Amino acid sequence: MPDVRQPPRKRTLAAVIGAAAASALIGLTASREGVRLTPYNDALAHDVQTVCFGDTTVRMRRYTLNECKAMLGDRLADYAEAVRAITPGFDELTDGQKVAVIDLTYNTGLANYKGSTLRAMYVKKQFPAACGQFYRWRFVAGKDCAIVANRCGGIVTRRNLERAACLGE
Q1: How far separated are the first and last CA of the chain, in Å rounded?
Q2: Quick one: pLDDT band at residue 1, thresholds 50, 70, 90?
Q3: Are residues 110 and 83 in contact, defined by beta-carbon separation less than 8 angstroms?
Q4: pLDDT in tens, 102-127
Q5: Can you give the three-state secondary structure of 49-79, one letter per residue?
Q6: What is the Cα 116 distance to its own chain's centre?
Q7: Residue 82: Cβ-neighbour burial (10 angstroms; 0-12, 13-18, 19+)
Q8: In the Cβ-directed half-sphere of 156, how many Cα atoms lie within 13 Å?
Q9: pLDDT tens-digit profile of 130-149?
Q10: Alpha helices of the chain — where are they, by DSSP H?
């Protein structure tokens, strides 16, 4: 008889962080990333080719909105798993604390989160001080996005939303 086993299925975002947190995370990330169905050069990220909801790791081609939504869920599940793996006690965090740190990591990269004071404070459960760390991540390509002339104020808005989620506001 032939082997008809299926490869193991990847865990969904809801399976990793819970349905309510998954819904909140997708809403936050999608609203701050925006969606583009065709590839573009992200000027804030040194002209890195980007598509859909800020994805830089897929083949650059035109996607449908449904494809972009599916990719966002999959990519956030990947980030959630990675953040969970390097954040002892992750499962005991509030939904807002999970949403905030996964969104930040999706936006800034896992390596940046891994070596951060924010991560150290999360591991030590130093809340609400850890939530105050989000504003420190307002710089893009050496520019302080709190300065209006730098034209990247959306980053500050995003960090404020992450901080609020972390605090449960």
Answers
A1: 57
A2: very low
A3: yes
A4: 999 999 999 999 999 999 999 999 99
A5: EEEECCECCCCCCCCCHHHHHHHHHHHHHHH
A6: 15
A7: middle
A8: 10
A9: 999 999 999 988 999 999 99
A10: 13-17, 19-33, 65-86, 95-108, 110-114, 117-123, 129-132, 153-167
Domain 13-167 falls under CATH 1.10.530.40: yes
Residues composing the chain:
169
What is the tens place of the pLDDT at every residue in 68-98?
999 999 999 999 999 999 999 999 999 999 9
Instruction: Please write the tens of the pLDDT for every residue from 42-55.
Output: 877 778 899 999 99
What the block records as the tokens of 91 is 């499962």
Q: What residues does each domain of the chain span? A: 13-167
- Give the strand pairing for 36-42 and 139-140: unpaired
Distance between CA atoms of residues 121 and 106, nearest Å:
19
